[in-house]
Design goal:
Layout (H helix, E strand, L loop, with lengths): L4 H36 L3 H20 L5 H20 L1
Length: 89
């Protein structure tokens, strides 16, 4: 447990940030999960429509430094590649 007042304040701040970061990550992961389910179900048209939603969630997470910008770029790239690959099959 923190002893000094500044450490107590830092603990409160990090607890609040944890909630926001968790919510942002969950939104991002849910969007990616939905696309992957559609790809497995061979429903590429619906997956294409959801790509923009997933990219928006990933970009928001990167903007707020929940994930790094390189991680965001990699996730978006792999997601689009996954949909394109399933489309060609």
């Amino acid at each position: 447990m923190p002893i000094t007042s500044s450490a107590k304040k830092a603990l409160r701040a990090s607890t609040k940030k944890k909630v926001f970061n968790h919510r942002r990550k969950e939104t991002m992961n849910k969007a990616v999960r939905d696309i992957k389910k559609l790809v497995v179900a061979k429903n590429t048209d619906e997956a294409k429509k959801l790509i923009s939603t997933a990219q928006k969630a990933i970009d928001k997470a990167a903007k707020m430094k929940t994930i790094s910008k390189n991680t965001a770029s990699r996730k978006k790239s792999r997601l689009v590649a996954l949909v394109k690959r399933s489309e060609n099959k």
